[in-house]
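Re-run with default settings, no changes from the original entry. Doing this only to confirm the output is reproducible before filing.
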Amino acid sequence: MNVYDFDGTVYKGDSSVDLCGFVMRRHPEALRHLPAFAAAAVQKKAGRITTRALKEVFFRFLADVPDMEQELGLFWQSHAQKIMPWYLECRQPTDVIISASPEFLLLPVCRKLGTGMLIASQVDAHSGRFLGENCKGAEKVRRFREVYPDAEIGRFYSDSVSDLPMAQLAQEAFLIRKGCPVAWDIRKGAQV
């Protein structure tokens, strides 16, 4: 099986940030959450709050979406073209996408792509509250092993060295650089 990070890997950019911009353009009342997010970003930079806490403040804009299912449909109609061409060429029905982005956000596009499994952060689509840990770094390994206790990963792809714990599980690992996968020497934590 091949396993992929999503944002910056399968998707060009950050889908959560893109959804936020999309929602704020369509529902300007969501802009009211920007000052709280700016304050939380300062607290995060100072080490006073966790990434999870910052993301919960970020996702407060979801409260201003009257119909999330419809909103996601419209979002993916306009943003599915940001799926990386290299991924479209090599995707397989056994692929696993594992991401720190919310599951509710990625599920529609993963269904459309025919992805075999999605493992992502559990976030309430109406409040932005996390229902579990942020699926990043070592948490990705824990969540992957919950679903696939003994599975071997053939290839793992990511745009971030924070995914080193997942890369170490794979027979081969690749970093995405300038929109293309390059071999990742996990012993050095960088590309070959």
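The chain is about 40% helix and 20% strand. The domain at 2-191 is CATH 3.40.50.1000 (Rossmann fold).
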